[in-house]
Amino acid sequence: MRIIETNSYAEMSRLAAGILGAQVLLKPDCVLGLATGSSPIGAYARLAEDCAAGLLDFSQVRTVNLDEYVGLGPEDPQSYRYFMEQNLFSRVNILPENTHLPNGCAADLPAECARYEALIDSLGGADLQLLGIGHNGHIGFNEPGPDFPRCVHPVALTESTIRANSRLFPRIEDVPTQALTMGIGTILKARRILLIAGADKGDIIHRALFGPITPQVPASVLQLHPDVTVIRATA
Ligand code: GLP
Question: Which of the listed residues 137, 144, 151, 164 has the most CB atoms within 10 Å of its CB?
């Protein structure tokens, strides 16, 4: 595991965009695993700038996102599909049909989870998976629990995650209580992992990277992956 410490969000974003961009340059038809949240916004903005400047070409890139809220459609400004369109997809030359998220409005959620897992496999898995981390150590929406979930699955969000994510909703009651997420097994199948964490995540990053490997801190499982880079802003 490589741990890179930076002293600002801007520097963290610059480095993360560099690694994501290098992946696209190395393998123009790569599969990028993508994340939502505040942490990747700066990196996505830099990728969009590099694409506009002709330095990066997303025309063959495929993407698979970690997760999506249950019940929010693509037009809903709080959905992760909407977030991705706003922050990345509409700003680079990626083909819409090459961008994938779980469908949180599917009538049959277990079937949708199986479809999404199979889709990721059919693309050959992620070459590089970008991750943020929740204050309770969640990655994707894999919340602390008794075991490490293997595959894409529906989850009930914990109260702390609902509270944390309510900052982006008009009212806490509007935050969905369920989501579909890649499992820990799905995430670990990525060939390389890039975890980014802002200055507010110092404690949980320390527990996840240096503490015991336990499903009570889902990100601690990353200690078992052979190719993880962590970029952490300390201020
Ligand atoms: C959400 C997402 C996670 C993300 C986390 C941290 O719960 N499902 O994938 O890592 O938030 O978000 P932020 O980067 O805003 O702190």
Answer: 137
Contact partners, residue 143, CB within 8 Å, separation at least 6: 134, 136, 155, 156, 157, 158, 161, 218
pTM above 0.90, yes or no: yes
Q: Is 143 a catalytic residue?
A: yes
Out of 11, 49, 57, 136, pick the active-site residue: 136
Instruction: Tell me which residue has its CA closest to atom 9 in ligand 1.
Output: 140
> For residue range 121-140, what is the model confidence (pLDDT) as tens digits?
999 999 999 999 999 999 99
Reference 167, options 200, 208, 202, 209; nearest CA is 200
Q: Which two tokens stand for residue 116?
A: 């999404």
The H or E element containing residue 26 is helix 9-26
Residue (of 116, 106, 135, 136) closest to 187 by Cα position: 116
Active-site residue, from 138, 142, 153, 165: 138
pLDDT digits (tens, 9 = 90+) for 3-34: 999 999 999 999 999 999 999 999 999 999 99
Amino acid at residue number 8: S
Domain boundaries 2-233, CATH class = alpha beta
How far from the centroid of its chain's Cα atoms is residue 149's Cα?
A: 16
Domain locations in the chain as residue ranges: 2-233
Task: Respond yes or no: is residue 57 known to be catalytic.
Answer: no
CA distance 131 to 152: 15
- Ligand 1 centroid–CA 136 distance in Å is 10
